[in-house]
Amino acid sequence: MPNNHHPPKSPKTVLITGCSSGIGHCVAMGLHARGYRVFATARKQRDVDNLRLQGLNALALDLDDSQSIKNCVSRILAQTDGRLDVLFNNGAYGQPGAVEDLRRDVMRAQLETNLLGVMELTNLVIPVMRQQGYGRIIQNSSLLGLVALPYRGAYNASKYALEGLSDTLRLELRGANIHVILIEPGPVTSRFRENAFGYYQKNIDPEVSAHREIYKRLEQRLTRPGPAAPFTLPPEAVLKKVLYAIESPRPKPRYYVTFPTYLFAVLKRALPHRALDWVLLKVSRNENK
User: Fold this and answer.
1) pLDDT tens digits, one per residue of 189-245
2) Residue 69 in contact with residue 63, Cβ under 8 Å?
3) DSSP designation for 11
4) Is the pLDDT assigned to residue 133 strictly greater than 90?
5) N or C: where does the chain have the smaller number of CB atoms within 10 Å of the terminal CB?
6) CA 217 from chain center: how many Å?
7) Alpha helices in the chain (DSSP H)
8) Domain with 216 in it: what CATH number?
9) Distance (Å, whole) CA 123 – CA 166
């Protein structure tokens, strides 16, 4: 009989995407240290090997590849007698660039990883959670799923869409004892900027853009050492909220992590659109100085 009311007493099984560094790596190590049965995934085999060397049960998972997603879930379920208690969708990347400079294929690639792969994985896991009568789906969103900032159009779009699908899913799963929870990190120490700069170099040609002067400053920001923004927190701050999302009997629909996410969640509700635009443009000018 499925357990319709309480999580299992034995260590919970957790699947985490994007564990090569940053938030995913920190959460995988933190949950493993607390006795969770963690399945840590990464796209590149060398990262999978590194995770195994650190004592984690690690598997390859490429969110752009349907077969990779299916294979990964099948392998996990074979090891857990068909059980999976928690999915933490963390894997994502940022594609910088002005909206008018984003080619269709570049935009599609951003959505494949940050949205479509995430939802395909989630939809594979939901029937498992329905069968066992319990589950937690935790989505790592972003401050940029709450408010937009210039030159992040592709990433903004992917995270806004993730928020919309997650809110819909939460309503559709009401009564199934499967909780859908959004984590809103804001600025957190990771390799995100370094990776984003690689995608910028690959896909944006500043010399033919109307935004080339701003791109010069954007390049400096993406390659600058040290924290990207004020109020940057270490990834352990996200781990703390993920633990709330897993262990709380009634988890909140959203957990804000850093001061900017708390602040902009309030400002979005309180300010008229033009006033919020003014604040966001000021933030953008300050960070691209």
Assistant:
1) 878 888 999 999 999 999 999 999 999 999 998 988 877 677 888 889 999 999 999
2) yes
3) P
4) yes
5) N
6) 26
7) 22-33, 45-53, 66-79, 104-111, 117-132, 153-172, 192-203, 212-223, 236-247, 259-270, 273-287
8) 3.40.50.720
9) 12
6 belongs to a structural domain: no
Residue at 3 is within a domain: no
Residue 143: name the closest of 260, 34, 11 by CA. Answer: 260
State the DSSP code for 265.
H
**In DSSP terms, which residues pair with 57 in a beta bridge?**
39
DSSP 10: S
Give 54-79 pLDDT, tens digit per residue: 999 999 999 999 999 999 999 999 99
Provide the number of structural domains found in the chain: 1
193-219 exposure pattern, b = at least 16 Cβ within 10 A, e = fewer: bebbbebbeebbebeeeebeebbeebb
Measured from the Cβ of residue 10, the count of other Cβ atoms closer than 10 Å reads: 10
CA–CA distance, 289 with 284 (Å, rounded to integer): 9
- Percent of the chain clearing pLDDT 70 (strictly above): 96
Burial class (CB in 10 A: 0-12, 13-18, 19+), 189: middle
- What range defines the domain where residue 161 resides? 13-287
Of these residues, 155, 200, 215, 256, which one is catalytic? Answer: 155
Is residue 255 annotated as a catalytic residue, yes or no?
Answer: no
Gap between the terminal Cα atoms of the chain: 60
- Cβ-proximal residues to 44 (8 Å cutoff; 6+ apart), any chain: 20
Q: Is residue 39 part of a domain?
A: yes
For residue 141, tell me if it sits in a domain: yes
Q: Which two tokens stand for residue 186?
A: 């804001």
Bridge-based pairing state of the strands 13-16 and 86-89: parallel
